[in-house]
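Reopening this ticket.

The earlier resolution said the output was attached, but the attachment link was broken on my side. Pasting everything inline this time so it's all in one place.
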Amino acid sequence: MLNWIITFFILAIVAGFFGFGGLAGSFAAVAKFLTAVFVVLFVVSLVYRMITGKSSGAPL
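Inline output:
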């Protein structure tokens, strides 16, 4: 998910540099949304780990 955030952030910067303000704003909005989703999922996983003492079962 961090890869998507970084990609949209870079696309927003490039679009803004070339003068595509509307497109840059759209890319920035998507990056902000994905950042919020990432932070929420990260906090939920930390709380789950604190409560149960084990990971969420992600495959290795």
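Reporter confirms the inline version is readable. The chain has two helices and no strands. The helical segments are 2-17, 21-52.
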